[in-house]
Amino acid sequence: MERSALESDIQYLPGVGPKRAELLRKELGINTFGDLIRLYPFRYIDRSSIVPVREIRPDMAFIQIRARVIARELYGATGLVSSDVPGSAAGSTGIGMTDDGRVHEACSGDAVKGKKPESGNEIRFNTVKRMRVTVEDGSGRIELVFFKGIKWMYGKLEPGREFIFFGKPTVFNGLVNMVHPEVDNLPEDGGSRMEKGRGAETEGKGARQDAGLTMTGVYPSTEKLKNGGITGRVMNRMQEHALNACLPEIEETLPVWLMKEKGLVPLAFALKNIHFPKDAQSLERAKYRLKFEELLFLQLSLLKQKYIHSRDAHGILMPRVGEAFNRCYDALPFPLTGAQKRVITEIRNDMKSGHQMNRLLQGDVGSGKTMVAVLTALIAVGNGYQACIMAPTEVLAQQHFKNISRYLEPAGVRTALLTGSSRTAERREIHAGLEDGSIGIIVGTHALIEDDVLFRNLGLAIVDEQHRFGVEQRAKLWRKSTCGMPPHVLVMTATPIPRTLAMTLYGDLDVSVIDELPPGRKPVQTIHATESRRAGLYRFMRDQIAAGRQVFVVYPLIFESEKMDYKNLENGYEQIVKAFPFPPYRTAIVHGKQSNEDKKFNMDAFAAGRADILVATSVIEVGVDVPNASVMVIESAERFGLSQLHQLRGRVGRGSEKSYCVLMTGQKLSKESKHRIQLMCSTENGFELAEEDMKMRGPGDLEGTQQSGLPISLNIASLARDGLILNEARGCAEEILAGDPGLTGENNRLLAKELGKDKYNIRDYSKIS
Ligand code: ADP
Ligand code: MG
C-alpha cells in the first residue's frame, strides 16, 4: 500500500524526530504532515528591507539588519568569563580581531574583572550562560544576546565578519538589543536573502518559490517550541519539506464551477503560497481562497443543520394572536416603533408555522425588547399555553416583573415572579399555579429551571441576556416541555453583533434585529476624565442632583481580584459619602456580596427616587431602568470592555433630560484602553462598538462564554475581520443548498465529500438553545 504523505507521522519529517514530534503534538496539536501544512503563518516578514541600526526603535516588530561583529562576551553564572572587547581606543575598529576564533586578551581590565583570558577552544561552554555580541553597521551599534546554542554561534560570529541578523528589538536595562536573532550569511549576489543550496533538490517544482521571494511566514509558536529548537527558521524548513511531500497528494475541495464563479485559486496553489508567497498578489489570492473555503464549509454545515432541524423539529402551532394580546396592545402607553412591529411579525410568523421557533432578538440597550417579550408571551397565552421569561439576575428578574406587570394589567393574565429568594409558602403557591395552568406568565431567574418546577403546558421560553445562561441551563429549560413538543424559544440580547456573524455564532437560530430606538431619546454625552478633574465632576454631580436628577457611580468587578475590587468599591463609597454627606444627599450602594434583600432595598430606593446616588459594581450592567438618572460615572473605566461600557452607558438617557456618561481613568493608559475610551466618546452606535470590540478581543470574548462558540474551529478566517468574506460565503452556501439541499448533484460532489469529514459533525444546537 502506498503511504500517504498527508497522513505521515510528523516525527518522520526531516529534522523532527520523536522528541520534537512530541512538542509539536502537545503545543500545536500537530500529528501529521497534513496537520503541519494546515498551520498557516499569522504574519509575514518582508526580508528584503534592511533597517539601519541607528533607526531601530524598541517598539518595532521583526526587523533585519546587516552588521559586522565587533566583539563577543561570554558570561557564566558568576559573571564574565571571556571577552574579546577591544580596548576603548579600538572602539569602532573591531575589525582588527584575529580570525582564528581565539579570544583576545581583553584590553579593558574593567570589563574582564581580572579574569584570565582563555583561548576559544579552552572555553568551557557548558558553564557559559549567556553571550553578548556587539555588532555595528556604520550607522550605529547594537547588542545581540544569546542564551542557547552559544558554542555554535560563538564559532560563527567571528569578529570582523558581516551577517544579516533578523529579530525583534527589545529593551534591557534601558538599552535596545535583540535576543536570539536569526543569523544569515550575506547573500553572495545581493539578491535573494535565502541561503544558497537550501531546497536545491526540489528546484523548479518545490514548495519554496524562486529567487524573488522576500516574504517569510511567521508561525504560531510557544516558549517550549523555541526551547525545543523549533525556531521560526526551523518551522519554515519543516513547512518546506512537508509541502514538497504533500503537494502531489492535495485534492481539490471546491468544484471547478465555484472556483471560476468566485475567482478562487486552486487549493494546491493556495497552500504553496500561504507558506511561501511568490509575491504579494499570490499571497492575497491564497489567503482569500483559504478563508473563503473555511467559511463556506462552516456555513454549509450550519445551514444543513438548520435545514434538518426545520424539517424535523415540529413546533407547537399557535395560530391565533388572541384576546390578551389585543387588550394589551390597545392599552399601550406609546405606539410601537417600526422595528418593534416588524420583529413581532417575524415572531408571530414563526409561532404559527408549526415549526419550533428558535429566534435571537438583538436590540441595543433601550430599544424596547421588554415590550416585544411581553407581546410574544401574550401570543402564547392567547393560544392556551404558558410562557416563562428568564433573567440572569435577581435584580433584573424583579425589574422585569415590575415593568411587565404594568404592561400586562390590561391583559388580565395571572403573572408571577419566582426567584431564589421567593419564600416557601409563596413558592408552593406558584408551583401549584404553574402546574394547574392558572399562572399564564412566569418571570424569574434560574429558579425557574429547578427540577421541582413543573408546567402544565409551557409553550414559550424567553431568555433575556442570553450570554449569562450556560448551555446546560438552556437544555434544562428545553426539557420543561410537557406536551411532547419543545417550547418556542426567544433569546434576547443587547449585544449587537453583525447579522451574518450572529447567524454564525448562534448556529441555527433565526435572527431578528430592533435597529431603531423609541423616539425622543436624547443622545448621551460621553466625557473622559482623570483624577485631576474629580472636584469638577463632583460639582457637576451636585448641580444635576440639585436639578432633581440621579447619578450612578459604577466600579469594576473583575473576579480574579475580587477582594481588591470590593476594597475599591468600599473606598469609593466612603469617598462619595464624604463628598456628598447626608443630609441633604442620599447615597445607596448595591453589590454582589449583599443579600438579595439588601440589594432589592437599595435598588428600590434608587428607582423610587429615595436616593440621589447609587454606588454599584457592574451588577447594574443590564436592564435596570431608572429614567430619572441622568449621569453615569464609570470609575476605572479602562478596566471595562467596550460592550460592557456601552451597556452601562445605556442605563442613562432613558428619560427626557439630557444625560451624561463620565469615564474616569488613570493618567496612563495602554494603547488599547485609550482606543476604547476614545471610541466610547465618539459613538453611541452599539453595532460600531461591537465590531470594534470584536476586532480587539475576538468574538469569543464578546460572547462572554466559550460554550456558544463555533461548531468548528477556524484556522485562517476571522469572524471579526473577514466579515465581507463571511457574507459572501453565507450567500454562496444558501444558493448552493437552495438548488441542491442534499448536495447529491455531481456538481457538488466535492462539497459533499468535504462536509462528510468528521470535523463537520456538529452538535445539534437547536437542542440547547
Ligand atoms: P431594552 O430591554 O431593549 O434595553 P426596554 O424594553 O427596557 O429596553 O425599553 C427601554 C425604555 O423604552 C422603557 O422605559 C420602555 O418603556 C420604553 N419604550 C419601549 N418601547 C417604546 C416605544 N415604542 N415608544 C416609547 N418608549 C418605549
Ligand atoms: Mg432589557
Report the mean per-residue pLDDT as an integer: 82
Q: How many E strands? A: 23
Q: Spell out which ligands are present.
A: adenosine-5'-diphosphate, magnesium ion
Sequence stretches where pLDDT stays below 50 over 5 or more residues: 88-118, 189-205, 699-709, 762-769
Helix-and-strand structural type:
alpha/beta
Helix share, percent: 25-40%
Largest sheet: 8 strands, mixed
Strand content bin: 15-25%
Number of helices: 24
Q: N-to-C terminal Cα separation, in Å?
A: 47 Å
Which value, in Å, is the CA radius of gyration?
A: 33 Å
Q: What is the approximate shape?
A: globular
Pfam families: DEAD (PF00270), Helicase_C (PF00271), RecG_dom3_C (PF19833), RecG_wedge (PF17191)
Catalytic activity: ATP + H2O = ADP + phosphate + H(+); Couples ATP hydrolysis with the unwinding of duplex DNA by translocating in the 3'-5' direction
Region (Disordered): 184-207
Protein name: ATP-dependent DNA helicase RecG
